[in-house]
Specification:
Number of strands: 4
Mean pLDDT: 78
Helix content: 40-55%
Distance between the termini: 24 Å
Strand content: 5-15%
Strand order of the largest sheet: 1-2
Radius of gyration: 18 Å
Number of helices: 8
Shape: globular
Length: about 160
Protein backbone atom coordinates (compact mmCIF):
# COMPACT_ATOMS: atom_id res chain seq x y z
CA UNK A 1 0.00 0.00 0.00
CA UNK A 2 1.26 3.48 -0.81
CA UNK A 3 2.23 6.06 1.77
CA UNK A 4 -0.62 7.65 3.69
CA UNK A 5 -1.36 11.13 2.45
CA UNK A 6 -4.14 13.46 3.56
CA UNK A 7 -6.50 14.62 0.83
CA UNK A 8 -7.61 18.26 0.76
CA UNK A 9 -11.14 17.21 1.77
CA UNK A 10 -9.92 15.11 4.69
CA UNK A 11 -7.65 17.92 5.83
CA UNK A 12 -10.53 20.42 5.67
CA UNK A 13 -12.83 18.05 7.60
CA UNK A 14 -10.13 17.57 10.24
CA UNK A 15 -9.55 21.32 10.53
CA UNK A 16 -13.28 22.06 10.82
CA UNK A 17 -13.84 19.41 13.51
CA UNK A 18 -10.72 20.48 15.41
CA UNK A 19 -11.88 24.12 15.26
CA UNK A 20 -15.36 23.20 16.51
CA UNK A 21 -13.97 21.23 19.47
CA UNK A 22 -11.36 23.87 20.24
CA UNK A 23 -13.83 26.78 20.08
CA UNK A 24 -16.38 24.97 22.26
CA UNK A 25 -13.72 24.31 24.91
CA UNK A 26 -14.13 20.54 24.62
CA UNK A 27 -10.47 19.95 23.76
CA UNK A 28 -9.18 21.68 26.89
CA UNK A 29 -11.36 19.43 29.07
CA UNK A 30 -9.81 16.26 27.65
CA UNK A 31 -6.56 15.34 29.38
CA UNK A 32 -4.78 12.96 26.99
CA UNK A 33 -3.83 13.27 23.33
CA UNK A 34 -5.78 10.10 22.57
CA UNK A 35 -8.97 11.49 24.11
CA UNK A 36 -8.52 14.80 22.27
CA UNK A 37 -7.81 13.41 18.82
CA UNK A 38 -9.75 10.13 18.68
CA UNK A 39 -13.13 11.84 18.14
CA UNK A 40 -11.62 13.89 15.31
CA UNK A 41 -10.16 10.78 13.66
CA UNK A 42 -13.50 8.98 13.99
CA UNK A 43 -15.31 11.96 12.45
CA UNK A 44 -12.91 12.23 9.49
CA UNK A 45 -13.13 8.47 8.90
CA UNK A 46 -16.94 8.47 9.06
CA UNK A 47 -17.24 11.37 6.62
CA UNK A 48 -14.72 10.04 4.10
CA UNK A 49 -13.25 6.54 4.48
CA UNK A 50 -16.42 4.73 5.56
CA UNK A 51 -18.54 6.39 2.84
CA UNK A 52 -16.02 6.11 0.00
CA UNK A 53 -13.08 3.79 0.74
CA UNK A 54 -11.96 3.82 -2.89
CA UNK A 55 -11.30 7.56 -3.01
CA UNK A 56 -10.34 7.78 0.68
CA UNK A 57 -8.42 4.55 1.29
CA UNK A 58 -6.85 5.45 4.62
CA UNK A 59 -8.40 5.01 8.03
CA UNK A 60 -6.80 7.65 10.23
CA UNK A 61 -5.79 6.96 13.84
CA UNK A 62 -5.83 9.49 16.65
CA UNK A 63 -2.02 9.60 16.35
CA UNK A 64 -2.25 10.45 12.64
CA UNK A 65 -4.63 13.28 13.51
CA UNK A 66 -2.44 14.52 16.36
CA UNK A 67 0.61 14.64 14.09
CA UNK A 68 -1.36 16.34 11.31
CA UNK A 69 -2.64 19.06 13.65
CA UNK A 70 0.89 19.61 14.96
CA UNK A 71 2.18 19.90 11.38
CA UNK A 72 -0.62 22.31 10.47
CA UNK A 73 0.24 24.51 13.46
CA UNK A 74 3.95 24.49 12.55
CA UNK A 75 3.17 25.40 8.94
CA UNK A 76 0.90 28.22 10.09
CA UNK A 77 3.54 29.52 12.52
CA UNK A 78 6.21 29.36 9.81
CA UNK A 79 4.18 31.59 7.51
CA UNK A 80 3.19 33.85 10.41
CA UNK A 81 6.91 34.29 11.13
CA UNK A 82 7.55 35.22 7.48
CA UNK A 83 4.89 37.94 7.48
CA UNK A 84 5.95 39.47 10.78
CA UNK A 85 6.63 43.19 10.52
CA UNK A 86 7.50 43.73 14.21
CA UNK A 87 6.95 41.86 17.49
CA UNK A 88 3.25 42.76 17.44
CA UNK A 89 2.51 43.55 13.78
CA UNK A 90 1.90 41.23 10.83
CA UNK A 91 1.20 41.78 7.15
CA UNK A 92 -1.77 39.37 7.17
CA UNK A 93 -2.60 39.92 3.49
CA UNK A 94 0.86 38.70 2.52
CA UNK A 95 0.16 35.36 4.23
CA UNK A 96 -1.77 33.99 1.26
CA UNK A 97 1.17 34.82 -1.02
CA UNK A 98 3.21 32.34 1.01
CA UNK A 99 0.43 29.76 1.47
CA UNK A 100 -2.98 29.90 -0.17
CA UNK A 101 -4.76 28.35 2.84
CA UNK A 102 -3.13 30.69 5.35
CA UNK A 103 -6.28 32.63 6.26
CA UNK A 104 -8.24 29.40 6.89
CA UNK A 105 -5.58 28.30 9.34
CA UNK A 106 -5.40 31.78 10.89
CA UNK A 107 -9.05 31.39 11.89
CA UNK A 108 -8.18 28.22 13.80
CA UNK A 109 -4.64 28.84 15.06
CA UNK A 110 -4.63 32.64 15.21
CA UNK A 111 -4.34 32.52 18.98
CA UNK A 112 -0.76 31.25 18.80
CA UNK A 113 1.67 34.01 19.64
CA UNK A 114 5.19 34.05 18.31
CA UNK A 115 8.06 34.68 20.69
CA UNK A 116 9.77 38.05 20.69
CA UNK A 117 12.46 38.33 18.03
CA UNK A 118 15.09 39.03 20.69
CA UNK A 119 14.49 36.13 23.07
CA UNK A 120 13.18 32.65 22.46
CA UNK A 121 12.58 29.82 24.91
CA UNK A 122 14.88 26.88 24.26
CA UNK A 123 12.00 24.50 24.99
CA UNK A 124 10.16 25.87 21.95
CA UNK A 125 12.98 24.72 19.67
CA UNK A 126 12.86 21.15 20.99
CA UNK A 127 9.10 20.88 21.28
CA UNK A 128 8.22 18.86 24.37
CA UNK A 129 11.80 17.72 24.91
CA UNK A 130 12.40 20.46 27.51
CA UNK A 131 8.93 21.59 28.54
CA UNK A 132 8.79 24.63 30.78
CA UNK A 133 12.56 24.61 31.25
CA UNK A 134 12.70 28.39 31.29
CA UNK A 135 16.05 28.16 29.54
CA UNK A 136 16.41 31.02 27.09
CA UNK A 137 18.93 32.12 24.56
CA UNK A 138 19.33 35.38 22.69
CA UNK A 139 19.17 35.48 18.96
CA UNK A 140 22.01 37.57 17.68
CA UNK A 141 20.38 37.95 14.28
CA UNK A 142 19.89 35.53 11.42
CA UNK A 143 19.56 31.91 12.40
CA UNK A 144 22.32 31.81 14.95
CA UNK A 145 21.88 29.40 17.83
CA UNK A 146 23.96 30.31 20.90
CA UNK A 147 25.95 32.55 18.55
CA UNK A 148 27.48 29.50 16.86
CA UNK A 149 25.76 29.87 13.50
CA UNK A 150 23.60 26.74 13.70
CA UNK A 151 20.38 26.83 11.73
CA UNK A 152 17.55 26.64 14.29
CA UNK A 153 15.24 24.88 11.82
CA UNK A 154 17.76 22.08 11.28
CA UNK A 155 18.16 21.67 15.03
CA UNK A 156 14.39 21.54 15.46
CA UNK A 157 14.10 18.83 12.81
CA UNK A 158 17.00 16.89 14.36
CA UNK A 159 15.51 17.07 17.86
CA UNK A 160 12.06 16.12 16.55
CA UNK A 161 13.39 12.88 15.09
Amino acid sequence: MKRKKWSELEEQTLLTKYSDLYTSGALTKLKTREKKFKPIAEHVNSVHHLRDPINFPFKWTWRDVSIKVQNMRHQYLGVKQKIRVSDSEYNWKDGENHWENFMKYKEVFGDIELESRDTKRFSDVGGDLFPHSGFTYSRNGGDEFFGLGFDERKIQIFISL
